[in-house]
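User: Study the fold:
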Amino acid sequence: MFSKCIKEAFKLPHRSCTVLFPWGIVECDQTECGHKTAFYHGNMDAAQRSFVQRQWSKDEVNIICATVAFGMGINKPDVRFVIHHSLPKSIEGYHQECGRAGRDGQRASCVLYYSYSDYIRVKHMIIQGQAEQSPWTAGCGRNNMRNSDGILEKNTENLLRMVSYSENDVDCRRLLQLLHFGEKFDSGNCGNTCDNCSKIKTLVEKDVTESAKQLVELVKLTGQHFSSSHILEVYRGSLSQFVKRHRHESLSLHGAGKHLAKGEASRILRHLVIEDFLAEDVKKSDIYGSVSSVLKVNESKAYNLRSGEQRIVLRFPSSVKVSKQGKTEVTSAKGSLMSGKLSPPQSGSPAQPQPEVDLNLSAKLFSALRLLRTVLLKEAGDGVMAYHIFGNATLQHLSKRVPRSKEELLEINGIGKAKVSKYGDRLLETIESTIREHSKADRNSSGSNESSDSVKRRRDASKAPNGNLEEDDEFTKSTGRSKKRTATRQNKVSGAHNSMEPVSCNRILDDDLDFNDSYHDTEANAEK
């Protein structure tokens, strides 16, 4: 399961720092991926947790599979992905956990994998957790018991709001989050960074009051002993063995929802649960230990619906969703909700890379600077994190601007006099050596191209009836000289490379800059 999450998150060509929130402790330990990964949860002792935190902060691992116990105080600004493998318990918790991505102002993505069955599991956890606390409050009077019931009710309400957020495949994710906190937001400013805004779709408003009434009535007709999936089967006219076993094919409302697509009927039923017209009674099987639920009718709310005092109007996407590439989109049973955190759109034309800086040189320089930072980090010892020396945004600016003096270093965001005094010489030495290597590689490449042209000219000349032997002799001499020069250069480059290579240096795996990405040129101090 988790491998799919990571593979989808790592479709980009570069590796990135990722926090993945699974169900709990067991799934933290079971996660296996082909990346440098560590797990973190509340059952680990203090020494283990501290060790994982140091690995994470020092870039020795680039993926943390963690429960919410993962320390909020850890300042890791270059997290590119936050992945929730299952449903958070509240929008507040989800918002807080997503906030760990993109603190450096660069592009980041938050992915939530959601299935309605997750709601049943989380609700069972909430009820079970409350039940485990009840013995402690049983002898403390009625007031404490009422408080316990109030906490359970509040936690359930928070969970339902999270389900509503996840079920909504129409409205802007950013808008939904900020509305929850009482803030206003114009979805036009989203910039198509969430899954809903990025879809090209036509929305249709439908009054589904009659269907809602029928579903509530069907729950009553079946004795309020069946799950939502069974109610949907009966409503849409299924003749499965389970339906026949309970003789539900003979009910008056059997097949009443045939005209609705399965997704529409499901959306209406879940809306009834979210808005408390129906309630999910969650139970755990004594035989298999699995969690199941049955639907119950909330009579006080259902009365308003049946009497016509309340109407239900929902917005649905058109039956065919078309992606930006013009291909029909198919949503799996357990879909993912993505929202990207991007730097604010810049007015005018988008920023372009500085023309005087070779992108290949910039990429090589960034790798060399990260390598230098790793060496400096090892020299600094425990207690010093990578971002204490230089943040990724600072290294990014260095690789773009290519400063050649200490005065130019001071012009880089994130570098002051203290850092120039402490690290300036080694920075400039790394920059100069990278430039030299890059220049030599360019010359070798151009020499190789010239030789290829000479070979082509010689081949053409040999095909001519009167080939110029004098030119052939000159070509042989020049080729011999070229081979000697190339061998000499390669030896020099090899020697220089070996002399600069640090001893026992772990290479960083989270190459989180894509130099062909337009976001590479966003200023480091941009707001998220």
